[in-house]
Amino acid sequence: xxxxxxxxxxxxxxxxxxxxxxxxxxxxxxxxxxxxxxxxxxxxxxxxxxxxxxxxxxxxxxxxxxxxxxxxxxxxxxxxxxxxxxxxxxxxxxxxxxxxxxxxxxxxxxxxxxxxxxxxxxxxxxxxxxxxxxxxxxxxxxxxxxxxxxxxxxxxxxxxxxxxxxxxxxxxxxxxxxxxxxxxxxxxxxxxxxxxxxxxxxxxxxxxxxxxxxxxxxxxxxxxxxxxxxxxxxxxxxxxxxxxxxxxxxxxxxxxxxxxxxxxxxxxxxxxxxxxxxxxxxxxxxxxxxxxxxxxxxxxxxxx
Length: 304
Description:
By secondary structure, the chain is of the alpha/beta class. It has helices spanning 19-24, 26-39, 43-49, 52-55, 58-76, 92-100, 105-125, 138-152, 173-182, 206-218, 240-252, 257-266, 280-288, and strands spanning 2-7, 85-88, 128-134, 156-163, 166-172, 190-193, 228-229, 236-237, 269-274, 293-296.
C-alpha cells in the first residue's frame, strides 16, 4: 500500500478546531503558542472560541488552518505511514511544503499570513466570490464561465476542479449572478454561492500575486524530501524555483485537485490520509477514486 498525505484549504475551518489536540498534546500546544507569539495576536483563541464571522475572514482563516493542520501533522507523523507524496488544497499546499521538509513552520506561517492579508486586500479592491457547481462536468463549467463572462462583461473562471460532479467557479459578483441565471441551460444541476468575499484562483487576485512575488522570492525554500504534487500543474516538483512559480500561479489559476488525485493513483497510491480540520478532501478522494482507502485524522479517536 502506497500512501499520500492531503492537507485541506479554506472552507474546512470551524470554531473549536484543534482544541482537543491542544489539550492532549504538548507538541501541538508548542506549535500553537509559537504561532500566537509570531503573529502578535491570539490566533489559537480565535480557532477555539471564535467568533465564527472573524474566523471566516480570509486574513485569519488561512493562518488558522495552516497552524492547526501543521500541529496535527507534527503530532501524528510518527504514527502514520511514510508518504510517497504530499499535496495540499490551495493554502493547504503550504502545509504540504512544511510536511515535505521544503519549508520551516515559521517561514510558512509568515507566507500564509501575508497571503491571506494580500488576498483580502485584493478582494476589497475587486469584490468577488465563489460558487460551487454540483452535477457539472469540467467542460460544462468552463462553458458556463465563458457565457457568464460574455453576458456580464466581468471575469469568472473555474477555480477548483475538485472531484467528479463538483467544480467551483470564482469571479466578479456580476459574473457569478450571470452564471447562476445561465446554469440551467449549461447542464449544471445546481449552483450554490459560497460564504467568501474574495475570488481566489482568478484574475481578480492579480494584485495579490504581484505583491506575493517578492515575498516568495525571499522565502528560504529547500528541495522537499517527499515530492509535493502541486495545484497548478497536477504533478510533483522538487526544484525550489519551480515550486515558487507554481505557488504564484496558484493564486490566479485553477486548483487541479481531481487531476492530482488521479496522477497519484496512477503512481500506485491507494491510501490517502487527510490531515487537518474536517474531512472535505476525504470525501473528494472517495468520489474520485472509489477503490482507494481514504481517511481523515480528525475522525480518529485521538481527536474525540
